[in-house]
Design a protein that fits this description.
The protein is α/β, with parallel strands linked by helices and 347 residues long. It has 14 helices and 12 strands. A 6-stranded parallel beta sheet has the order 2-1-3-4-5-11, sandwiched between helices. Strand 8, helix 12 and strand 9 form a beta-alpha-beta unit.
């Protein structure tokens, strides 16, 4: 019969319920607490093998730093706040952004905290909350306007941040952006190459910077090709049901476009439904071009011409930019733009 020592069962139960600490990891690895702490912080004077051993044990134990203790000792939270619109498109945009950021932060002391908001509400509110509570060491924001008040406030408060998109008011700050001007210009060229001459643009809302980039590319493409614009009185923030109804009415009219460029994958689903409801076929009566962050549109309708926007890459670039800014790297060195990757078989 197994004779356990008195109290063994109680001690094990108590130990299993205790939150693992740096001391626990030090005991399991045979290293000093200071060495463990510096290894988890990716200190340059700690060897790669030691860092990997410490991180492996930390993962196995489910170790999480005590945020309150870290903040009291260092004044840091080890938190990067992602201010993310709950209205972002349904085509994987938000999840891909989070995945990309998480890939970078997984090798650092930092963790991502998502601060949700609606773009129909005051966009300053979530940023003010982060600043007032000191709840993050760095901030990532999206849906950038040319003269974005959030950017100005973060710069005034000297808080490290990066933006998904650019401003246009002489403010130098870290950003990653997609080349929407190139996308729209190249989209027009692809449509014209298919013989399309009457083109409509389902564009971003006019308050956002990338509206101007998209419009500039679209207009340049029209000018170069001699194609004509058919105005579309909705934008990608318009409810999908309304987009469908308006595009269906347009496709039934004598003024119907024969090519449409969409700045949003989810809006493209509504446009495709509208074309079909009007009794017309994509790739036959009309051609449709869209951005997408995951390859779903081509499963729905292979005839849709798509350009891949790597939002996961954007997340990685933004996370690296915020961390570098926290470390004191100059903002002008933390700016990047990714190009559209076309996924159509033609052109």
């Amino acid at each position: 019969m197994n004779q356990d020592k008195p109290g063994d069962g109680i001690a094990l139960t108590k130990e299993s319920r205790e939150r693992p600490t740096l001391k626990t990891i030090a005991f399991m690895t045979g290293l000093g607490i200071t060495t463990v702490s510096r290894a988890l912080k990716d200190a340059p004077d700690i060897g790669a093998d030691t860092k990997e051993r410490v991180r492996m044990v930390a993962r196995q134990l489910g170790y999480q730093p005590n945020r309150a203790g870290v903040r009291l000792r260092t004044g840091k939270t080890n938190v990067i706040a992602l201010v993310l619109s709950i209205d972002e498109e349904i085509m994987g945009f938000s999840s891909q952004m989070v995945f990309g950021i998480s890939e970078v932060l997984s090798g650092t002391p930092y963790h991502i905290v998502i601060t949700p908001h609606s773009h129909s509400k005051d966009p300053m509110q979530p940023v003010r909350y982060i600043l007032d509570t000191g709840s993050a060491d760095g901030v990532i924001i999206s849906r950038i306007e040319p003269d974005d008040a959030r950017v100005r406030l973060l710069m005034e408060q000297n808080v490290p941040f990066a933006t998904h998109g650019r401003t246009d008011a002489g403010m130098v700050h870290p950003y990653h952006d997609f080349d929407n001007e190139a996308f729209a210009r190249q989209a027009v060229a692809r449509l014209v190459a298919r013989g399309r001459r009457r083109l409509a643009l389902l564009q971003p809302p006019s308050k956002l910077t990338y509206y101007f980039h998209t419009r500039a590319g679209f207009v340049a493409g029209l000018r170069e090709s001699g194609a004509q614009e058919v105005p579309l009185p909705v934008n990608i923030d318009t409810p999908l049901a309304k987009i469908r109804d308006i595009v269906e009415a347009m496709m039934r009219s004598d003024d119907a476009p024969d090519g449409i460029v969409c700045s949003s994958g989810s809006a493209t689903i509504a446009v495709n439904a509208a074309i079909e409801a009007a009794g017309k076929r994509v790739g036959h009566d009309v051609d449709l071009v869209s951005k997408q962050s995951i390859p779903i549109l081509n499963w729905i309708r292979p005839e849709i011409i798509t350009a891949y926007e790597d939002v996961r890459l954007a997340g990685r670039e933004l996370a690296k930019a915020v961390i570098a800014r926290i470390d004191g790297v100059e903002p002008a060195l933390l700016q990047s733009i990714s190009q559209p990757v076309w996924q159509d078989k033609k052109g």
